[in-house]
Amino acid sequence: MDDPTLTFDSHRRRLQGIAYRMLGSVAEAEEVVQDAWLRWHDADKNSFDSAEAWLVTVVTRLSIDRLRAAKVQREHYIGTWMPEPMLTEAPDTPEQLLERADSVSVAFLTVLERLAPEARAAFLLREVFDADYDEVAQTLGKSEAACRQLVHRAKLQVQEARPRFNVPRETHQRLLRAFADAAARGSLQDLKALMAEDVELLGDGGGKVQTFDKILRGSQRLAQLYFSLWRRMGAGVRMELVDINGEPGMLRFLDSELESAQTFEIENDLIVRIRAQRNPDKLARIAQLFSK
User: Fold this and answer.
1) What is the pTM of this model?
2) Which 3 state secondary structure label does DSSP give 263?
């Protein structure tokens, strides 16, 4: 590879990370990075001082443009919009665990949907990718003061909406194993005992598959839902525990076909929120990994 290609590839992971967190879509993030590569290929590389700064600026601005278009589409999205999940490897160190859980979880990406595109970009660059305010200002074409204000307001919005507790990974895994086991046995009481009384279930079917058009609440109601599926399909239901967006999660297969990718929020050793991604378009990449 020539030097420009080596240079681009050395920054690819960071660029992909920015684009995915901006857009909540692996496919769209890859398209943005590919577009940035084409622009990089044609750029006069002697006209700027930092390749990384130039590439981050291009990817961020392309992502902002896409996010603005996506905001219009998502206003007319059928049902609850949730990001495209991705399988991740378990972090090796406590530092990697904290970094991933804080910046790429499904819950966190869902919270980011509340932010306007430029606020989302400013917040991510500063709080997730540790950019200085002068870098953020240069990337967004705004003053440092304006960027500080963007980040400050975004932090307040994120803090209000994000999960309140950091749960130890071991606790998360233990509860999910118990939940998957109870679902596999069809134990209504065990399922209910693992959930808070006001537990919530959110589903994203994208208008492609049937799902609930509003949030379902209550441990009895949700336990009954999982129990009813077991009663109807028995051994045709299979759960597999995996890492989804840096946290323990669960894939559910019905008759060997991937039906949903589920992530769980936990407080006080109880499940308080379940997000079930059922949109087949958003499950396609994961389904391909498990296809026979």
Assistant:
1) 0.88
2) strand
